Q: What sequence folds into this?
């Protein structure tokens, strides 16, 4: 699942929950799914940031 | 000598001498006129009766021989040199012994500054009307090779080379040294221009010459050179003379520099500055990438915050709905019945539905539509 897909699903879940038309059990399930998607998004952002910092470090050390 | 034909049957035949005589006669009847050209191959000898030179058309090289009586020539005190432009007043004359014709000059006037200026102005208008000055191509940011057309003496050459090398040490330059003044300059420069612009990888050509007199710079306004500059397959930077000089090749070039040094600055970037710019670009690149992650992170965090609050909100909403229902439920109690005059009677055991359920002397509770009161059973 790409970051954008996860983010889109997470936002849809939040909108659904905020509309308040989900049953209580369903709302709990949606919440759990939302938390899962959030972790996934944050993980992917952390990975991207790590790569950026690594590249910047490498570029810096390769300076003439 | 009379022009007389011999008769061979019904054919008239002339001798060569009489043919030439006839042509000479005819030529001598042509009017005396002014002709403009460049003086070349001037030959004057104190023992000769005449002075000889060739008058050449500077545009297409057409030539005519000119003779003028030596006394007349000397009286003009012109001190003409090869390559100078002049107006010659004369008429054609046949040299009968050879059968070639030349111009018999009666007077010569040096082509003055005013004539030059007027001629340049005419040429400028003509070339402008043809659109020769219109093509302006952008100069390459970083030419693979640079062509330099310049004089062999020249401070101009040194200025261009030093400045280019100082700004961009790795620059590669093809130099074509050529005449930059005098009668052969224009054709020599055209050839040099053709040569360097055709050299492999040359992306731009600099035409450079330091300052000089108006006459010195005239070849740079030569129609052929101006056209060659305009037609050059790679962009041309013209750096001729000083700020105030505007030879026509400056107008035809893609860029004009006021000095050779300025031309050098136009054709190569400053390496140090370029590296700084690249460095800044790289910095902006990593900042940009970090910014993309940061913006996404903020959005995810905001969404997460909404997610965190959502279940409590949902429960709260359900609770509120429940309370609402409870309220309505309470509202639907039998009060309506009490309004009609009924009462609810309660004893310690609950609602009294039978007289047997109470004993005399017992305290009971009576609820009516408006409030409640205690009573004792009799």
A:
């Amino acid at each position: 699942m790409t970051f954008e897909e996860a983010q889109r699903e997470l936002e849809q879940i939040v909108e659904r929950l905020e509309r308040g038309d989900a049953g209580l059990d369903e709302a709990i399930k949606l919440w759990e799914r939302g938390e899962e998607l959030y972790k996934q998004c944050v993980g992917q952002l952390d990975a991207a940031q790590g790569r950026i910092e690594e590249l910047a470090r490498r570029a810096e050390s390769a300076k003439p | 000598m009379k022009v007389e034909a011999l008769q061979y049957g019904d054919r008239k035949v002339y001798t060569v001498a009489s043919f030439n005589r006839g042509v000479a006669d005819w030529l001598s009847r042509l009017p005396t006129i002014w002709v403009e050209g460049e003086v070349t191959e001037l030959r004057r000898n104190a023992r000769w009766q005449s002075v000889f030179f060739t008058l050449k058309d500077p545009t297409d090289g057409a030539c005519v021989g000119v003779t003028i009586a030596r006394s007349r020539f000397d009286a003009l005190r012109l001190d003409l040199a090869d390559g100078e432009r002049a107006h010659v007043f004369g008429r054609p004359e046949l040299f009968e012994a050879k059968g070639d014709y030349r111009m018999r000059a009666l007077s010569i006037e040096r082509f003055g500054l005013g004539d030059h200026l007027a001629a340049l102005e005419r040429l400028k208008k003509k070339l402008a009307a043809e659109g020769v000055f219109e093509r302006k191509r952008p100069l390459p940011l970083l030419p693979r090779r640079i062509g330099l057309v310049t004089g062999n003496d020249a401070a101009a050459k040194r200025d261009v080379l030093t400045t280019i090398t100082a700004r961009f040490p790795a620059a590669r330059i093809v130099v074509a040294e050529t005449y930059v003044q005098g009668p052969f300059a224009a054709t020599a420069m055209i050839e040099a221009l053709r040569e360097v612009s055709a050299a492999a990888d040359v992306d731009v050509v600099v035409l450079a010459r330091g300052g000089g007199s108006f006459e010195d710079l005239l070849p740079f306004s030569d129609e052929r050179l101006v056209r060659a500059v305009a037609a050059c397959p790679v962009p041309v930077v013209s750096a001729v003379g000083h700020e105030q000089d505007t030879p026509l090749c400056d107008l035809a070039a893609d860029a004009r520099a006021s000095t050779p040094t300025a031309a050098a600055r136009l054709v190569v970037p400053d390496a140090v500055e370029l590296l700084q710019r690249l460095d800044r670009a790289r910095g902006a690149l990593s900042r940009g990438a970090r910014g993309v992650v940061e913006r996404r992170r903020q959005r995810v965090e905001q969404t997460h915050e909404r997610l965190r609050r959502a279940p409590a909100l949902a429960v709260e909403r359900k609770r509120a709905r429940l309370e609402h229902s409870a309220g309505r439920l309470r509202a639907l109690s039998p009060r309506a019945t009490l309004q009609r005059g009924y009462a609810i009677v309660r004893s310690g055991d609950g609602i009294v539905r039978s007289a047997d359920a109470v004993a005399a002397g017992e305290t009971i509770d009576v609820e009516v539509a408006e409030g409640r009161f205690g009573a004792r059973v009799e």
Summary: Chain B has a mean pLDDT of 88. The radius of gyration of chain B is 54 Å.
